Amino acid sequence: MLAHRLCFSTGVFRAVCYRGVRLASTQSTESSEIVRQRELRKSRQRLETLALATKGLPSFRDTARAALGGELKRRKTSTLQVNVGLLCNQTCHHCHVEAGPTRTVENMSREVVDRVIELMARSESVQTVDITGGAPELNPHFRTLVAAARRHHKNVIDRCNLTVLFEEGQHDTPEFLAANQVHVVASLPCYSFANVDKQRGKGVFDKSIRALQRLNELGYGRVGLQQPLRLSLVYNPLGASLPPPQQQLERAYRSELQQHFGIEFTDLFTVTNMPIKRFADQLLQTEQYTAYMQLLLDAFNAATLESLMCRDTVSVSWDGKLHDCDFNQMLQMRLGAPGAQAPPAPATVWDLESLDQLEGHSIATGKHCYACTAGAGSSCTGALVS
After folding, report:
1. For the chain, does the N or the C end have fewer beta carbons within 10 angstroms?
2. Residue 145: its H or E element
3. pTM for the whole thing?
4. DSSP letters along 69-99, please?
């Protein structure tokens, strides 16, 4: 009974996921500039509303500064996270990037991909290239980026929603990922059929299980293999609550998936829902936003500050802009102000010669950052402290 309770949390929203879309043939009559301006206006209006709702909360910068005894600053960049676009075969209400089948304009071009590859090659400190979206596999240059990263001996992460592997043109994607030893980080918000389909849409659980079984067949997550390929699963709560303890939930996932479906995986990441974009809209509509922000503030854990992903990760948007993290990217927050001895922070991939130049810069923050420091902490690689 405890195992089943762990997958559920309070909340009132559901996700709607669209499948069977011929994404490759989707065309848009809008220019990228029109789309950019519309999204910018929408973002500004939302931010104004959220600012009013959190007016009484202390700034994250002040809270972090008090805990650290100084500014939150960047270390050497070890992870290059690349958002190759917002095109996705699903549209889920908890998605912090507002991805979906209609987001065809915001797709990284070959020019930007080539520049990212140049920077990756020049940046000695970068060890991992973390590719995200949308559904990153739907970008036409996804495989080019993966292959280039592997040629330069970088670890590669593919943030996969699993159902994309059944889209047209993706039949050999699992084999491609395995051949390039790509670390697959797969969304699976529960091991329960009812809960997954409730959150992500009818039929998503079945496709997810089939995709995981296929990945297992190729050597992903197989505990008994001498050198298994890494398969990480991602859990996020259904609503306005913090995730349960990561190790406890991982044990439940492992037991349930093995017993019912014969599925093995390497590890589980628990991720706190970020109060931005679609999730923020849902919280506002249900009058839970202020209470959720207070929950995050009350659960602030100073021990997480040393491990925050923004300290050693740089996030590149589909159009080549630089950000401290994927969440800041979605809020149009550029890299933070420079440290005392550092030059001005570059704005795009064309404004610097190496990501090593970013060391020492201060980090741009907002009240949404409390989600990363609540409880055990949260990052793209799960909890920050045990």
Report:
1. N
2. helix 142-151
3. 0.87
4. TS--B-----EEEEE-BSB-S---TT-TT--
